[in-house]
Amino acid sequence: MTEQGAVALVTGAGQGIGREIAIELGRRGYMVVANDLRHPHETLRELRDMGAHSLPAPCDVADEEAVTFMVTSVFSAVGHVDVLVNNAGISFQRRAEE
């Protein structure tokens, strides 16, 4: 467990490693702010089912204005962020020659 009231913002929380990190932080007692390009419904459902507090924060982290709006919204809603897991990313698949 962690200190009561600790907040973790996890980008890319809708799937993969980001989702697993968000779930584990929820298990450890963090309030999880789950970011993904689209609303991370399944992550939030699992967090809710385990009794963890969570908040959706969908936005494209490649869009500076969207990130500013997301951060402002998070601070308005919960007042602070103790942990940032900057996990969001994209992958490109190309041949090595390219």
Roughly what fraction of the amino acids lie in strands?
5-15%
Biggest sheet strand order reads 3-2-1-4
Total DSSP E strands? 4
Mean pLDDT level: 92
Q: Share of helix among residues?
A: 25-40%
Shape descriptor: globular
Given the structure, what is the number of helices? 3
Low-confidence runs (pLDDT<50, min 5 residues)?
A: none
Largest sheet, in brief, is: 4 strands, parallel
Rounded to the nearest angstrom, the distance between the terminal CA atoms is 47 Å
Radius of gyration (CA) equals 14 Å
User: Element order, helices and strands?
Assistant: EHEHEHE
Global structural class: alpha/beta
Compact overview of the structure:
This protein is an alpha/beta fold. 37% of the residues lie in helices and 14% in strands.
Summarize the structure in words.
By secondary structure, the chain is an alpha/beta fold. The protein has helices at 16-27, 41-49, 64-78, and strands spanning 7-10, 31-34, 54-56, 83-85. It has a four-stranded parallel beta sheet, with helices on one face. The longest helix is centred in the C-terminal third of the chain and has 15 residues, at 64-78. The chain is globular, with a radius of gyration of 14 Å. The termini are far apart.
Please supply descriptive tags for the structure shown above:
98 residues, four-stranded parallel beta sheet, 37% helix, globular, alpha/beta, single chain
